[in-house]
Amino acid sequence: MHQIMKPHVSLLVTLTMCALPGCAAAPPPKTEPWPTEPFTMHAKGTFDVTVTPQQADNPDAQAANISRLSLGKRFQGDLEATSHGEMLAAGDGTKSGGYVAIERVTGALHGRTGSFMPLHSAMMKQGVPERWSVAVVPDSGTDQLVDIDGTMTIVIADGKHHYEFAYTIRDASR
């Protein structure tokens, strides 16, 4: 025959036995301090983008045959925001090329309001994106996003832009 002990009975027995002379109480459990380093948060969603060709505004840019484009975006999901920026691109735009861009994103990220500036860089070789990098410019955050840092991954599937944003905010009290 097996004896089944109920957890509350076992705890009562242990507490009663420790009240006896010569019984040493167990030390309190160790607690870890709250982390002082920021932890990585993850945001995801979709965005719509409008790209408008602009004229090269100086002779060197015209001679280099570099495309200049304005960007406007509307983010949905964990990041509810709009952005405005500028892109410089080289290549034919269909098979191979490269671009750099910078934009200011303004809105709410997981409920924190403010703005920050992502910097983009990418190459495309025979229609396949390579070395695509999107990272937050250091010290570009404002308001509740002052100490933001992070990287964003962009995936284009079925004509829709999706983002995944891994970020930290150093001072979580903001």
What global shape is seen? globular
Per CATH, the architecture is Beta Barrel
**In total, how many beta strands?**
9
Portion of residues within helices = 10-25%
Order of helices and strands: HEHEEEEEEEE
Mean pLDDT metric: 84
Broad CATH class: Mainly Beta
Radius of gyration, taken over Cα atoms and rounded to an integer in Å: 27 Å
- How many H/I helices? 2
Tell me about this structure.
The protein has 2 helices and 9 strands; from the N terminus they run H-E-H-E-E-E-E-E-E-E-E. The longest helix is centred in the first third of the chain and has 12 residues, at 7-18. Strand 3 and strand 4 form a beta hairpin. The protein has a single domain, classed as SO1590-like (AOC barrel-like). Residues 1-20 have low confidence and may be disordered. The chain has 174 residues and is mainly β.
Task: For this entry, give a set of tags.
single chain; 174 residues; mainly beta; AOC barrel-like; 9 strands; globular
Walk me through the topology.
Layout: H1 7-18, E1 41-54, H2 59-64, E2 67-77, E3 79-91, E4 97-109, E5 112-116, E6 118-125, E7 128-136, E8 148-157, E9 160-169
Antiparallel strand pairs: 1-2, 1-9, 2-3, 3-4, 4-5, 4-6, 6-7, 8-9
Short summary:
10% of the residues lie in helices and 53% in strands. The chain is mainly β and 174 residues long.
